[in-house]
Specification:
Blueprint (H helix, E strand, L loop, with lengths): L4 H13 L7 H7 L5 E2 L15 E3 L7 E5 L2 E6 L8 E9 L13 E9 L8 E11 L2 E11 L4 E2 L9 E10 L2 E8 L5 E7 L12 E6 L2 E2 L2 E2 L7 E11 L2 E3 L5 E7 L2 E10 L2 E6 L1
2-acetamido-2-deoxy-beta-D-glucopyranose binds next to loops.
Length: about 280
């Protein structure tokens, strides 16, 4: 995929032309100061007796799967020799969340692309979307984050079913760009980010495409039923060529002994994360 100068310029113009959207649920909570959306590195689960948490995934030959409390998707854990990951992108559809119980409590799920954060734990440069449901009401946010800072929202009036292209790009270990493009309209929003501290620079060691059960403050939001998120056109760029998801690490979300999000790989550039 290409982000042309014309489409970026169009996006900047479009930013000003958009009618002010009704603030999403998370945004309203944020305005009240009770909400700070934040991704976390994956919290891996050691399924004891099961080869240190690395299981052979049923029916998928020799690809191994790791389980984590919060990330499902695919991580490239190592760049090619003497190169680093400098950009990660994919296309996906904003999922329509449904509640998994009758509590009326807020539930959510997030889909994003990022650089670092798995084996390289100091930083994550990432951008993506959140889908929320509370008391039957859904809302959606597009955001960017340089972990360990919290996420900031893009000014974008998202709906379920919107097809977006998400991309992060590092221009140096301490500078990056996040872009969310509306695939239907070709319009995009973009921002530049800086490492929040000199301890949180990028290593370009991991590239990932993730559905996350993220945090607000120190607690994890209960995971909504997000149905299925299909990442297509998955691409990780290095100076030494572009890579897809083949031969990369698969992660499923497991909570309380139950797999809640499972990954099915369709090709080198496409896979789905399915709520169970
Ligand atoms: C994306 O573009 C489509 C078609 O123009 C529009 O209906 C939709 O509202 C747009 N979504 C966002 C988030 O801009």
């Amino acid at each position: 995929m290409k982000f042309t100068t014309a489409s970026l310029a169009g996006a900047m113009l479009a930013g000003g032309a958009l009618a002010a959207p009704r603030p999403g649920l998370a945004e309203r909570l944020e305005q009240r100061g009770v909400f700070q959306r934040q991704s976390q590195p994956p919290s891996k689960i050691d399924n004891s007796g099961e080869e240190n948490g690395v299981l052979l995934k049923e029916g998928s030959g020799d690809s191994n799967v790791q389980y984590s409390n919060n990330w499902a998707g695919i991580v490239r854990d190592k760049p090619p020799a003497s190169a680093t990951y400098s950009a990660v992108s994919a296309t996906f559809t904003v999922p329509n969340p449904t509640a998994t119980d009758n509590s009326g409590d807020m539930q959510a799920a997030s889909a994003w692309v990022g650089i670092d954060g798995d084996t390289y734990t100091k930083a994550i440069l990432q951008t993506g979307i959140d889908s929320y449901i509370q008391n039957g009401e859904t809302s959606f946010d597009a955001w960017y984050e340089w972990y360990p800072s919290s996420a900031e929202n893009f000014d974008l009036d998202l709906s379920a079913g919107d097809v977006i292209v998400a991309m992060v790009k590092s221009t140096s270990p301490s500078e990056g760009i996040a872009i969310i493009e509306n695939k239907s309209s070709g319009k995009s929003v973009t921002t530049t980010l800086s490492a929040p501290s000199s301890d949180a620079t990028l290593g370009g060691q991991n590239a990932e495409w993730i559905v996350e059960d993220f945090n607000t403050g120190s607690s994890q939001v209960p995971l909504a039923n997000f149905g299925m998120v299909t990442f297509s056109g998955a691409q990780a760029k290095t100076d030494d060529g572009d890579y897809g998801v083949n031969n990369a690490q698969i992660l499923d979300i497991q909570q309380n002994g139950k797999v809640l999000a499972d990954v099915i790989v369709e090709s080198d550039t496409e896979f789905s994360v399915i709520y169970q």
